[in-house]
Amino acid sequence: MNIIKFVYILMPGSIIMTLLWAPPAAILGDTSRIIYYHVPLAWISVLAFIISGIYSGVYLLTIKKQQIKDLHEKSHISASLGLFFTILTVITGSIWAKVSWGSFWNWDPRETSIMVLLLIYISYISLHTTLSNNENQGKICASYLIIAAATVPFFVFIIPRLYPSLHPDPILNREIRIHLDSRMRLTLLCSLLSFTFLFFYLFQLRIRMHNIGRAIEEQRDEKV
Amino acid sequence: MVNELFRNITKDFSIEFKNPSTLVTSLSFAAIATISISLVSRSYQFSPFIQSILLWLIMFFAGMNSLLHIFIREVDHGNELFLKLNSSAFSVYFSKLIFNCVLFLFLQIIITPLGIAFLQFSIQSQFFFIAIIMCGGFAISGTTTVLSAIVARSGGRGSLFTIISFPVLLPVLWVAISSTEKALGQSGFWDSESLVFLLAFSGMIIALSFLLIRFIWLDE
Amino acid sequence: MRILAKVIKPSSGGVVYFDGQNEIDEDLIIHAIGFLSPHVEPYGELTLHENIRFVLRTDMAEDKIGEHLHYFGLFNHRNSPVSHLSTGLKQRLKYLLAVINEPKVLLFDEPGSNLDAPGKDLVYSYINSLKKDRIIIVATNVKEEERLCGEVLSLG
After folding, report:
1. CA distances from B38 to A146, B3, B32, B63, B117 (A)
2. Within chain B, which residues score under 50 in pLDDT?
3. By Cβ atoms counted within 10 A, which residue in A78, A134, B19, C41 is the most buried?
4. Across the interface, which of B174, B208, B215 has its CB nearest the CB of A150?
């Protein structure tokens, strides 16, 4: 059984928990419920990028032997899903920023980090599109993604530590503790899990679509 | 390998000395941008923060054209195959990296006095200013060399280069601008963390570029 | 020809070079091959001499370089930029650049293109002189160039 299909249960359950079961936060009230969407979306944005980078790395390492097929396509699919989730992260983050700090965008280091990630995704897609008829598309796009991925630790982890942030105490802080009420913590974790499953579900769907498209093309070529 | 590298460096510098049009264009851009800002602002005394932003943006955009040129020229003039037959990907990359570092440093040496003369830069921490300019410049030229190889191989041009460079260089610009602001505004300032950041960033990108250049440059 | 020169990869299959029983490492192949082709363009901004210095992998004395230039009729143009040469002289330069490192394998793609009759005589006699101790592969549509080779393979 495909474990990813648990998303059909997890996602609705997670939505119910976020809207009804989790208590509202102090001061922010019900508007704080956006955390259960914003944080998982941000997590998936980074996860998609990591997966894309891993596929790109494996693609380049195995390029001569060509043992594993479709690595470049999987990298691209992960990146395009990552772009979608990053846009949603920016939107949900902006809404939360407006409610919490009074303006949609403040160029807080964490906001800047996600914006840079979005720009990297856009650059990658632009490069991929420019190389659409180029037989070296896979290698060049994979190389760019690896270079761009290498800069991510600098602006996700190092720069926020060099400069002050408006963001709430990060989930991954020095004490390695989540500073939330227990029900809120459980809701957040369920939401993180649901969105992770959602990402892999969409990833599988896109791969299936790609394989079907390729099978159709091969049949067309055989007929010709 | 050393011999091959030396031949490539000699070749690149010879060609650019014989036809310095790209360098001249970059310097002209820098001069025009600086003088235009000075003219429209009527020599207004900007804050160190604004001065820092102006300095790095002028350097960045002046450098974009020249930094891209070194690989694009090989493709545009049809020398790509000739170069591949006679040099390994490593020596091609390393020679162009050295060229770009020297070129960008030269641009910075010209642009900084222009800023002092026309934009009233007043450098309070001279040693730190020189250090941050050199480290930032090294990071920019180190990063853009491999990206220019990517653009050259993709058949793209200046706009694609700016699109793919900007997000990768944002951490460099961010730290460089913040640090330059302090060098312009505060006397006796020194911040090793930002210098280490820029050098670590450069080192990482250059190391990765060495590993990846054969995938980018060769059709194997 | 570019597949044989290892500058592009084939869609399937491969090319392997052996030195006796030992397979030659991919990174060392470029040292063993001289390639002449209409697609190989030396640097137009540089002089003939500068292009030769760029290609040379070992130290070669100036008089030895001069000998090569004389043989191909290029000595008087050695300090001219390549962009100022006629197509015939450029083709002779390409020969010189392909052979000056004395590679073991020579790949000539359309060897007679852009050459006048004396130029063709010159390069054909040069190729004949090299046949004894080199592997020479010629790609051509010209009948007279087939006679340069011991074995002919017709493609298509």
Report:
1. 41, 47, 10, 20, 10
2. none
3. A78
4. B208
